[in-house]
Amino acid sequence: MAVIEVTDLRKSYADLNVLDGVSFSVEEGEIFGILGPNGTGKTTTVECVEGLRRPDSGSIRIFGLDPVKDARKVRELIGVQLQQTQLPETIKVWEALDLYASFYADPRDWRELLEEWGLADKRNARFGKLSGGQKQRLFIALALVGNPKVAFLDELTTGLDPQARRTTWELVKRVRASGVTVVLVSHFMDEVEELCDRVAVFNRGKVVAVDTPAGLVGGEHRMRFTLMAGDASGVAGLEDLPEVIEVSREGNRVVVTGRGDFATAVTAHLARHHVLVSDLRIDKRTLDDAFAALTGRSFE
Q: What is the 8-class DSSP label of residue 236?
């Protein structure tokens, strides 16, 4: 069941076309990723869905409600962690949760959220004294204090160290496990691959693909190796193997792209033709590769 449906969303500022016909849907209970480089319309799209911005045209429905016309009802259904979320440096953790709880008709008990998100011992700590990871825990708790059915998390791990990022990923999984649908905005490939059930890939204000991370990446792999001294004429025949998609060569460096058990087929072919190689490495196709294939440009 789709809890969010976005159809032909458009938004411009003066001569700048920010959103150009964006469409996607989010299913109940999934972690749905919105992926793309900075400046591709991700945050604008989410802010329109949340009702924080008014689109020029198009349709948005959250549980069948319009986020502009039915703003009050929608606010009771969603929790939001904005990209630029900040709190006063001197506000205490419990004060922030108590304040946010007051915005909702039927909020969670924020004392339970303190325990649930490992903030009980920071109850009286001031926001400015929290570590980056602790601040992210607080932001997630604030997004959940209203008992939402959908949580929007925008660039949640920007600026965190690797350990704090992975800890935050586990928190996002816990949000989904609690029965909340998650919309995760990110420009980190590894984050999307780790967390998301499906992904909408943005490029220059458009959605260029919606699929699972595995579906976007596909089953392609690359084998790289260096030719050693001797007859390397057998390399030419690699392109005829059914598992091989492409062979490229620059000097003694060879890159073979293939699918399935292509590595076995390639190594067997090289052995039959007595081709000696070194520095052999097999790389899985990445989301960066998929983005480049979809858009014709690198992920920046």
A: G
Question: Residue 1, Cα to own-chain centre: how many angstroms?
Answer: 21
Rounded CA separation 243/16 (Å): 45
Is residue 186 classed exposed, middle or buried when 0-12, 13-18 and 19+ CB atoms within 10 A define those classes? buried
The bridge status of strand 150-154 relative to strand 181-186 is parallel
The correct answer on CATH 3.40.50.300 for the domain covering 2-215 is yes
User: Largest alpha-carbon pair distance within the chain?
Assistant: 77
**Interval 197-234: pLDDT, tens:** 999 999 989 999 999 988 887 767 889 999 986 667 77
117-128: string of b/e by CB count within 10 Å (b at 16+)? bebeebeeebbe
β-pairing verdict for 244-250 and 181-186: unpaired
* Paired tokens of 20: 């150009």
**What is the pTM assigned to this prediction?**
0.79
Which residue in this structure is represented by tokens 């490495």? Answer: 281
State how far Cα 132 lies from the chain centre.
20
The one-letter code for the residue type at 108 is R
CATH architecture of 219-284: 2-Layer Sandwich (3.30)
